[in-house]
Design brief:
Elements lengths: L1 H13 L14 H5 L4 E8 L13 E9 L4 E9 L4 E8 L8 E4 L7 E7 L2 H9 L4 E7 L2 E9 L3
Antiparallel strand pairs: 1-2, 2-3, 3-6, 4-5, 4-7, 7-8
């Protein structure tokens, strides 16, 4: 946890005044970035997983703020009723289509994570131009191809 907070704080400080430092390891992106960037959301369900089935008992939420010109994104992922999470990503792919990983997200700890990262600004612009062409995917040991999925939306 100490390394997570240190790395997150360093990332927030590197982003400058547009991104205030995190107060703790799990922080709402709106509190971190204020009105900076564009807000993105995804509701995560097992039913949306492609190819399914995902974890039908699980659920979750992805929230982020993304600054297209710099590619800076602060995000939070929270999941319930899934165990042994092995990874989380933003993937290329419209609803009903499985796609490649576009952005790797930090590993979840006790069903949640918040972090800031920098992606290629061209990818950030592409995501914001049509967020429905991207989805968030959470994987666990029982569903290595994906336990929960949700399309991005503004």
């Amino acid at each position: 946890m100490k390394n997570f907070v240190s790395a997150t704080l360093a990332a927030a400080l590197a982003l400058g005044p547009a991104v205030p430092a995190l107060a703790d390891g799990h922080q709402d992106p709106d509190k971190v970035m204020g009105d900076s960037g564009v807000k993105l959301l995804a509701e995560l369900t097992g039913e949306a997983e492609v190819p399914g089935p995902g974890d039908m008992d699980g659920s979750g939420m992805f929230k982020a703020r993304l600054i297209p010109s710099s590619g800076q994104m602060c995000y939070e992922v929270m999941v319930d009723d899934i165990d042994d999470v092995t990874g989380a990503h933003i993937h290329f792919g419209a609803e009903g289509v499985a796609g490649d990983v576009a952005v790797a997200l930090k590993d979840l700890d006790d069903g949640k994570v918040s972090d800031c990262l920098t992606m290629d600004s061209a990818l950030a612009v592409r995501i914001l131009d049509d967020p429905s062409q991207f989805y968030v995917n959470v994987h666990d040991t029982d569903h290595p191809a994906g336990a929960l999925r949700g399309q991005l939306m503004k």
